[in-house]
């Protein structure tokens, strides 16, 4: 059942629908910039050059992202004019524009990520043809056909998911004898997985070579990822990339999700152990340690209202459940939609914390301070402990955990680290205005 | 001429221009867009976003809505938001996708106006033109709807037109301009639109002259000229050039003649090349000539503001990096946004002057308030040890 159009900003779990608690409508953009966009992700590729062929309005955001990163030398652009659209000259103009840029580059980039926009999609622009022509012209550069098409965000892989997949398209097939059975890739993540996590320790103890784009320092290290035989993903937005690689390079895929339930954590690690052909280590001590860390954090933080948002983890409901079970006072989850993996946690919370609230982050009402508290239903101010930048902004608190996309944490060790960050956030104020406005948390910035 | 670049950004789009122009006027601006325009504008093009509330939203256009022409959700959503927020007016503008779809903004505005009982502006932005175009479009449309029929009360009353943070930054320069004019016996009737309001906008006809501080203000100035006969003066009162602007305003008010004192700089093969928005760059060129004695030439890649330029200045309507590099290569010194440095020759003295419409929030600290104070207080006019060139 579609949610009522009036329920645009706040709903209690007992009344919320899954996976979309709110009707779509006008959207507000909160001044929260930590989550990565496709530029931050694209820049992970060593030796890669990003080239956007788009109208000005679309170019501006990606170029300025690169500018703030101090990475303009890795970004170029070709503008699209109204005349080119009207006269059907988009392909010709794109070929000429890209050629002019590549001709002037010495040395030529190893990989050229060409991004087209929504406008190209709706003018039946033949990007495959243009890429093929350019590939023929520049054989030393691998041309990758990429998209920046937010109009498709609800009807297929999102731009973020596509970009994560595009990053590996320059990997070529390898001969069977070159495959490395003991090499494992962690793919389509945007930051390294914590080296102390059970996942990483399991891979190391199994004698595996672990390759991760976020740790590649050269194109050669990147190319070596083609020789690995197993791809591991932890983030749901990485699944599309894994599917593509499985189909194109025959690399087996295993999803060991970032999650918060002990059973699910154990199940993921058990699948990994089986795939590696090693026994699952005893995880009891790890789980006990995580539990103890949460108990200690709960003792210090007490009944403080807790707000969580979807930018801090792809599993905000899972995190809400973990903390609720540990006795924290989770009052609100800021999210506009949930992924399917959250269904079980949604059901649990609905049964055990029906008064917990889901608040939309895109709702226009969030623009106004006077409406943000929903007449007192959602607490505001420094009495709130926020987990995530959007929660900090919406709840107007300087006590927040500054983390995006899981922060590289995983498993029981990740919970232990997170518990420490909760304590730190509760005891110390952060400069909310400055920190949440920095683009691409973890990336270089000129600000 | 190509519209390509390897090393420099592109200027803000018309969509951002609309939003910036209307930001403080009490309306609700809705951008018909999927996603992207909202974060681009609010992150890079709008330094007021965190600290000052303004009703600016996107429609969240989806693929299905685009294919099936479903504009009913847009109408429902805008009407619902208008009912909840009670804005003074609604502005509906667009991005490249609605442009491709042939969205009829005038028709949508008409329908919304009937449903909401509010003035609704349909602004056919494309996301392809520059912010100057968008701001001009928005203000001119607003003036047509809201300007009252008033007449100048005093010969020394002026309006400031074209003021947005995209061109002026957030450095207090609008307040300084007001203080400068008021201190010289000139009343500032209204400012379009930083620090302004819809009430001020209604009485724009009550000025004896209009001061255009960015070329986005030329369209509104021409409208006011047609409707009220008000002359306009193009120029920013910066540095010692402020006195020229003041004198031109008095003369324009007396004579009813438009004036462009900022076009009095050298132009041609000037030694110092000043790059940027036409009115600002030309005014700076005039101020620099006063204090340095060196001839200045202006390079404006924004395709607007020819009224402000001198013979031999360069006005382009595309952001061609190669052409920019050629121009910089011939200069004895350069005044430009720091993000132009990569296409400037090494060794050429470079004076960095941030421009929000170009470098967003990267160089907000290099945008001083230059109103009516010697440039030497803000800059090293010997052009010191600052050199261009790619690091």
Q: Identify the quaternary structure here.
A: heterodimer
Count of helical stretches of chain A? 18
* The CATH topology of the largest domain in chain B: Rossmann fold
- Which spans of chain B have pLDDT < 50 for at least 5 consecutive residues? 386-391
Measured by DSSP, the beta-strand proportion of chain B falls in 15-25%
> Which geometry of chain B do the CA atoms define?
globular
Biggest sheet of chain A, strands in spatial order? 1-12-11-10-13-14
Helical percentage of chain A: 25-40%
* Contiguous runs where pLDDT drops below 50 for at least 5 residues of chain A: 1-6
Features:
heterodimer, A: about 450 residues, alpha/beta, Rossmann fold, 6-stranded mixed sheet, 4-stranded parallel sheet, 18 helices, disordered N terminus, B: about 400 residues, 3 domains, globular, disordered C terminus
Can you describe this structure?
The complex is a heterodimer of chains A (447) and B (391). Chain A is built from 18 helices and 14 strands. With 447 residues, chain A is an alpha/beta fold. Chain A folds into three domains: 10-31 and 292-435; 46-166, Rossmann fold, CATH 3.40.50; 176-276, Nitrogenase molybdenum iron protein domain (Rossmann fold). A six-stranded mixed beta sheet of chain A has the order 1-12-11-10-13-14, with helices on both faces. A four-stranded parallel beta sheet of chain A has the order 3-2-4-5, with helices on both faces. Chain A has a four-stranded parallel beta sheet with strand order 7-6-8-9, with helices on both faces. In chain A, helix 8 runs parallel beside helix 11 (262-276) and helix 12 runs parallel beside helix 17 (411-427). The radius of gyration of chain A is 23 Å and the shape is globular. Residues 1-6 of chain A have low confidence and may be disordered. Chain B is an alpha/beta fold. Chain B has three domains: 14-146, Nitrogenase molybdenum iron protein domain (Rossmann fold, 3-Layer(aba) Sandwich); 157-261, 3-Layer(aba) Sandwich (Rossmann fold), CATH 3.40.50; 263-377, Rossmann fold, CATH 3.40.50. The longest helix of chain B has 16 residues, at 131-146. Chain B is globular and about 60 Å long. The model of chain B is unreliable at 386-391 (pLDDT under 50). Chains A and B meet through helix 2, strand 3, helix 4 and helix 5 of A and strand 1, helix 1, helix 2, strand 3 and helix 3 of B. Strand 3 of chain A pairs antiparallel with strand 1 of chain B.
């Amino acid at each position: 059942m579609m949610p009522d159009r009036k329920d645009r900003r706040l709903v209690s779990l007992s009344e919320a629908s899954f996976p979309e608690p709110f009707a779509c409508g006008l959207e507000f953009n909160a001044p929260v910039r930590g989550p990565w966009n496709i530029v931050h992700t694209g820049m992970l590729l060593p030796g890669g050059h990003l080239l956007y062929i788009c109208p000005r309005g679309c170019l501006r955001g990606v170029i300025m992202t690169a500018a703030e990163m101090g990475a303009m030398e890795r970004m170029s652009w070709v503008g699209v004019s109204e005349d080119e659209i009207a006269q059907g000259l988009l392909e010709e103009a794109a070929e000429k524009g890209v050629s002019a840029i590549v001709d002037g580059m010495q040395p030529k980039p190893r990989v050229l990520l060409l991004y087209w926009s929504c406008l190209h999609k709706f003018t039946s622009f033949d990007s495959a043809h243009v890429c093929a022509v350019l590939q023929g012209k520049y054989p030393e550069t691998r041309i990758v056909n990429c998209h920046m098409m937010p109009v498709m965000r609800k009807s297929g892989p999102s731009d973020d998911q596509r970009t994560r997949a595009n990053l590996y398209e320059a990997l070529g097939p390898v001969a069977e004898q070159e495959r490395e059975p003991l090499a494992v890739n962690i793919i389509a993540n945007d930051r390294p997985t914590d080296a102390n996590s059970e996942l990483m320790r399991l891979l190391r103890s199994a004698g595996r070579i672990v390759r991760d784009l976020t740790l590649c320092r050269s194109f050669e290290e990147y190319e070596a990822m083609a020789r690995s035989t197993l791809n591991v993903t932890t983030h749901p937005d990485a699944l599309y990339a894994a599917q593509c690689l499985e189909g194109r390079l025959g690399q087996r895929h295993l999803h060991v999700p970032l999650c918060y339930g002990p059973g699910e954590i154990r199940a993921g690690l058990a699948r990994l152990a089986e795939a590696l052909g090693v026994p699952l280590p005893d995880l009891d001590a790890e789980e006990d340690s995580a539990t103890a860390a949460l108990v200690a954090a709960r003792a210090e933080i007490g009944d403080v209202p807790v707000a969580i948002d979807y930018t801090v983890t792809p599993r905000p409901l899972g995190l809400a459940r973990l903390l609720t079970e540990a006795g924290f006072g989770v009052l609100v989850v800021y999210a506009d939609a949930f992924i399917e993996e959250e269904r079980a946690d949604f059901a649990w919370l609905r049964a055990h914390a029906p008064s917990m609230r889901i608040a939309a982050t895109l709702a226009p009402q969030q623009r106004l301070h006077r409406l943000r508290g929903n007449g007192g239903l959602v607490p505001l101010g420094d009495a709130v402990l926020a987990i995530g930048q959007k929660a900090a902004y919406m709840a107007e608190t300087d006590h927040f955990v500054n983390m995006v996309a899981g922060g590289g944490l995983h498993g029981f060790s990740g919970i232990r680290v997170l518990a420490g960050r909760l304590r730190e956030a509760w005891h110390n104020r952060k400069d909310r205005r400055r920190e949440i406005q920095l683009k691409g948390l973890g990336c270089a910035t000129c600000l | 001429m190509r519209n390509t670049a390897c090393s420099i950004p592109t200027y803000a789009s018309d969509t951002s221009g609309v939003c910036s122009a209307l930001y403080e006027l009490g309306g609700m601006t809705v951008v018909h867009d999927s996603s992207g325009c909202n974060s681009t504008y609010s992150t890079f093009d709008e330094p007021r976003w965190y600290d000052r509330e303004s009703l600016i939203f996107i429609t969240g256009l989806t693929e299905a809505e685009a294919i099936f022409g479903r504009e009913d959700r847009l109408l429902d959503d805008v009407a619902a938001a208008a009912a909840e927020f009670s804005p003074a007016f609604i502005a509906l503008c667009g991005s490249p996708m609605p442009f491709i779809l042939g969205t009829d903004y005038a028709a949508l505005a008409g329908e919304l106006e009937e449903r909401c009982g509010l003035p609704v502006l349909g602004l056919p932005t494309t996301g392809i033109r520059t912010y100057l175009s968008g701001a001009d479009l928005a203000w001119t449309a607003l003036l047509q709807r809201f300007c009252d029929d008033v007449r100048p009360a005093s010969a020394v009353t002026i309006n400031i037109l074209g003021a947005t943070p995209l061109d002026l930054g957030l450095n207090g320069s609008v307040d300084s301009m007001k203080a400068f004019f008021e201190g010289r016996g000139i009343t500032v009737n209204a400012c379009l639109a930083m620090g302004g309001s819809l009430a001020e906008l209604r009485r724009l006809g009550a000025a004896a002259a209009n001061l255009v501080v960015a070329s986005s203000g030329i369209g509104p100035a021409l409208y006011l000229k047609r409707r009220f006969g008000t002359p306009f003066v193009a120029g920013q009162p910066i540095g010692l050039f402020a006195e020229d602007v003041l004198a031109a305003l008095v003369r324009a008010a007396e004579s009813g003649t438009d004036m462009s004192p900022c076009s009095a700089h050298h132009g041609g093969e000037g030694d110092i090349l000043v790059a940027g928005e036409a009115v600002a760059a030309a005014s700076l060129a005039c101020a620099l000539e006063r204090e340095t004695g060196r001839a200045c030439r202006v390079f404006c890649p924004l395709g607007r503001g020819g009224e402000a330029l001198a013979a031999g200045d360069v006005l382009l309507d595309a952001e061609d990096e190669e052409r920019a590099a050629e121009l910089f290569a011939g200069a004895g010194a350069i005044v430009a946004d720091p993000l132009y440095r990569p296409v400037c020759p090494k060794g050429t003295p470079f004076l960095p002057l941030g421009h929000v419409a170009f470098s967003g929030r990267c160089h907000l600290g290099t945008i001083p308030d230059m109103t009516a104070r010697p440039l030497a207080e803000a800059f090293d006019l010997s052009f010191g040890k600052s050199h261009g060139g790619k690091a």
